[in-house]
Amino acid sequence: xxxxxxxxxxxxxxxxxxxxxxxxxxxxxxxxxxxxxxxxxxxxxxxxxxxxxxxxxxxxxxxxxxxxxxxxxxxxxxxxxxxxxxxxxxxxxxxxxxxxxxxxxxxxxxxxxxxxxxxxxxxxxxxxxxxxxxxxxxxxxxxxxxxxxxxxxxxxxxxxxxxxxxxxxxxxxxxxxxxxxxxxxxxxxxxxxxxxxxxxxxxxxxxxxxxxxxxxxxxxxxxxxxxxxxxxxxxxxxxxxxxxxxxxxxxxxxxxxxxxxxxxxxxxxxxxxxxxxxxxxxxxxxxxxxxxxxxxxxxxxxxxxxxxxxxxxxxxxxxxxxxxxxxxxxxxxxxxxxxxxxxxxxxxxxxxxxxxxxxxxxxxxxxxxxxxxxxxxxxxxxxxxxx
Length: 387
Fold this sequence. Notes:
Elements: H1 2-7, H2 17-43, H3 46-63, H4 78-89, H5 96-101, E1 137-140, E2 146-153, E3 172-178, E4 181-190, H6 191-196, H7 201-223, E5 240-243, H8 256-263, H9 268-271, E6 275-278, H10 280-286, E7 309-310, E8 313-317, E9 331-334, E10 339-352, E11 361-374, E12 380-384
Parallel strand pairs: 1-10, 5-12, 6-8
Antiparallel strand pairs: 2-3, 4-11, 6-9, 7-8, 9-12, 10-11
């Protein structure tokens, strides 16, 4: 009991402990607010702030002066000053020396300051081809060739009496085979060019391949030999042939009579579906012909986009047709459904990044398999320039 009394401390005043703590906290808060206020006042020095603003304004004013580039050695160059003056004020407010120095034709005298600009369009020259595919009959096959049986002879009836012997007759046939041939080419392009070009180079190559193949097959459809390429309609056998009656050109007297004769050489059912095939030079000559009243034989169509017509039938311009000349065939008329085009493989493009990878190049292959042949020679008539 005596030890416990010694360990405890007794105070005479009986003060409230909660009130004491509250008073201590209030004093601490007052002292803290005072110190923070003093720190803020000391951190914001109006005189120092004004000095800093003035310094920044001075730097900005120097930077805005013409000719300042950041490279002190170039500040004195007249060309640099001229370009900055032009960019800021325009050529109307530039001095004569500055205008003279800003010469884009010479790289060292300002040409480097005028960067080269490339247009977004790739300019391409016209490439013409014979659009015979638009008029012929086109089919797609799934084999190496296609064979058609074709009738070459028919039965023949004869008048007989009641008890007379009858005469036998029978049709005859042959087979017509059309085989596709292959067109192919390739182009090597550097990998970096394919990556960096701005014209969709692969798309442009595809379009160029399509044009090249169209030109090549169009020529074959008109004049192809049939050896390693399709048989052209002008080289096929069996088509009726008439002559102009003049050795080197159309007759000078009534040349339109030759055209009328061609039209009526075909049966009406074929003539009413016929198309005139000629090149532009021949068309120009025929357009000069007039009838007895002075009217032109070929009249421009009334509606926009309609084809020119000759004797009521459309004219198809074929660039691969012959010009008018001795021994040439400048004109063909007939139903183009009698000429058949056989597609085996359409235009196929293969991108090969492996074969030339060690050279940093990509090889782009293009190929097509197509054939053609004359199936109905009786639907056509062609004109030869001969006496």
